[in-house]
Amino acid sequence: MSLTVVAEYSSALASISLARAHPSLNDLSEWKPMSTHHHHEHDDHSHDASERWKREGVRVIKGDRLDSNTAQTPGMFRQAAINHARVGAQKIWAGTVSIQPNAKTGVHHHGELESVIYVVRGKARMRWGDHLEYVAEASPGDFIYVPPFVPHQEINASPDEPLECVLVRSDNEAVVVNITDVEPVEKPEEVYWVDPIHKHP
Fold first, then answer.
1. In a domain, 11, yes or no
2. Which domain holds residue 113?
3. Which stretches are tagged as biased composition: Basic and acidic residues (predicted)?
């Protein structure tokens, strides 16, 4: 048998085996590349992801839609913007606080939570400690950090302008522990942030 005949015979056997293993190949009109199927699966997955981002993605909370149904302290008015109930937040709470001119809040702390206060308008005076023995002031554009469990009091240091701030805390729900039995010192010690970068004023 010549090499040509052997080659043709082997080719025929291969074709028969392929046809038996894949009967659909007998009619190429029904054949579609596998990539088309994967493409449809990708489209479906992308569509599902898009719908999920629509429901669970970015949220814009308008300033006139804040929620005052949150923990309060005498002398200040808090409103919640971001929390678990409103947007599904898992690890943060954010909102606003306002204090009237010359007013001061009750002494309180926020349990295990860390707090950040950003001064938007007015002049903030913070007192803290077991007897409010320390004091520092902050102006618009300044940030204030309050560690966990620190007793503190916010004071509006302006006689004629409201104090307005943005609050962020390290949990999705507000925690406020108001303290009523604090005897504050008469003259607190003024504290400055002093380190190799921040010099004493």
1. no
2. 63-190
3. 41-53
| DSSP letters spanning 167-192 | EEESSSS---EEE------SSPEE--
Tell me, yes or no, whether 123 lies in a domain. Answer: yes
d(CA 132, CA 148): 16
Helix, coil or strand: residue 93: strand
Q: What is the pLDDT of residues 119-174, one digit of tens each?
A: 999 999 999 999 999 999 999 999 999 999 999 999 999 999 999 999 999 998 88
Helix (H, G, I), strand (E, B) or coil at 137: strand
What is d(CA 18, CA 56) in angstroms, rounded to the nearest whole number? 49
Q: Is residue 48 included in any domain, yes or no?
A: no
State which amino acid sits at residue 169: R
Q: What is the DSSP string of 1-68?
A: --HHHHHHHHHHHHHHHHHHH-GGGG-GGG---HHHHHHHHHHHHHHHHHHHHHHHS-----GGG-B-
> Is residue 3 situated within a structural domain?
no
> What value does the mean pLDDT take over residues 163-187?
94
Q: What residues contact 79, with CB distance under 8 A and at least 6 apart?
A: 66, 67, 68, 70, 95, 96, 97
Whole-prediction pTM = 0.72
